[in-house]
Amino acid sequence: MNDRLQPAGGSWYHFRMTEQTRVAVIGAGITGLCAAHELVKRFGAGSVMVIDAADRPGGYAHTERAEGFLCDSGPNGYLPREPRLTQWVEELGLGDERVRANEAAAHRFILKDGRLVEIVGPPRFFVSPLLSVGGRARLLAEPLIRAKRNGEPESIWDFAARRIGPEAADTLVSAMVLGVFGGDAHRLSLEHCFPRMAAMEREHGGLFRAMLAMRGGAGGPMGSGGVLTTFRGGIGALAERAAERLGHSLRLGNKATAVERSGSAWRVCLQDGNEIESEFVVVATPAHVTAELMAGLDAELSRACATIAHAPIAVVCTAYRREDVSHDMNGFGFLAPPNQAQRLLGCIWTSSVFPQSAPEGWVFLRSMIGGDIHPEDAALPDAALLGHVAREVHPLLGITRTPEFVRIYRHRHGIPQYRLDHGDVLRALEAAEARHPGLAIAGNAYRGVSLNDCVASAHRAVQMIAPA
Ligand SMILES: Cc1cc2nc3c(=O)[nH]c(=O)nc-3n(C[C@H](O)[C@H](O)[C@H](O)COP(=O)(O)OP(=O)(O)OC[C@H]3O[C@@H](n4cnc5c(N)ncnc54)[C@H](O)[C@@H]3O)c2cc1C
Known about the structure:
Blueprint: E1 2-4, E2 16-26, H1 30-43, E3 48-51, E4 63-66, E5 69-72, H2 83-91, E6 98-100, E7 108-112, E8 115-118, H3 133-140, H4 156-164, H5 166-181, H6 190-193, H7 195-204, H8 207-213, E9 229-231, H9 236-246, E10 250-251, E11 256-262, E12 265-270, E13 275-283, H10 287-294, H11 299-306, E14 309-321, E15 333-335, E16 344-348, H12 350-353, E17 362-370, H13 382-392, H14 394-397, E18 405-417, H15 422-435, E19 439-441, H16 451-465
Parallel strand pairs: 2-3, 2-13, 3-10, 7-15, 13-19
Antiparallel strand pairs: 1-2, 4-5, 6-9, 7-8, 11-12, 12-13, 14-17, 14-18, 15-16, 16-17
Helix pairs in contact: 1-9, 1-16, 4-5, 7-8, 10-11, 11-15
The chain binds flavin-adenine dinucleotide.
């Protein structure tokens, strides 16, 4: 540790401390925590320092526990598709804490003309009212549609309309995009949001053909299935355990303000006036923060990160006594496609999916509001958000009373939106990483937003700075 007599925090009376470490990780969300876990395995605990601006770890992956309810403020689970996430969970000793979604979660609904319609596969699909007869016929014609070969960026909606018809694009695909990205299918890049779907057309000529070719293997357009999984204490348990294992290597409540080059080392400047000097740095902050941190180092990199838009989102958790809800609640929840002119993106029936998340005899819901379609809604005051829930959720579920328990979480930079120029953004980012050996940019803003993708991003960063 170097202590230099310099002004820090605006005062001449402070020593500015420069701590040295092998790797500095900025951001202790799931990406940063996973990267740090892997780096500790490679370099040892004393060689890694993780800093986060917040006073708790996990970023969006956080669970508030109140009055017997587990309130996940962001993600509520992961699909065990990424072996490196499963391995991390096991290495953290959380294997026995895992909770798989109830069977009810297999029933998922879409709001159509004021009622909930279950999404079903064949043969029930053929008689489902979700699409008109013409819409169903058009979807079934998918194998006859020629593959697009020009390689031009295409929106998710254009792809879906071309392959399975505009009605299915509006109803099924737009709803799915809201569910994953809180986004608008017309504005998001298929290649970057759903790379597997793009690959199915590229490699097999179409979705049905690809599914036939992969029968019994890797699953559908969204990847292999898998059952949504959380932990006994909610998804926040993952971050809490990871943080606990990092011990003193994790410093909370201190914001990074800049990343600079200092001779052959990296210098991370902190809000408290101190600095960290390291051989490597992993920047795992949200893209708009990464843009600020990089502004003095590399204008192009900073610009690329700043162009990534984020959909704001409000998560409204409400609970009701079972007798005040007439619906059977046998399901995962529902999505409200944009063509239904609702303010709500969707609603997860949390107590049906994960019964341990609520006390016995209660119905516990998570309603999502805002997203890229109604971004302004995410910042509404509590009463207005609860008003949307009362108008748009209560009648569908036969809820007769106001909620007896409420928690609301607003995420101004909720979910990154990979727009049609996202390929250019990634190329700029990769070029910058090549210009700055020892620097890795990671997180949910680049190559996937799920927890699985964050873990993959963490491993990419670790591999870049310390190839196995
Ligand atoms: C409402 C919602 C629901 C979701 N549901 C799911 C789901 O069910 N399943 C799923 O797989 N994914 C889901 N996601 C996506 C997933 O939760 C996120 O993509 C993921 O948690 C992002 O992790 P991250 O570490 O990349 O970023 P973040 O969680 O944003 O972490 C970044 C960290 O950087 C810190 N930081 C910021 N600025 C600074 C600074 N200047 N200095 C130091 N630290 C700083 C922050 O405090 C934060 O801890 C959901 C997201 C949202 C918003």
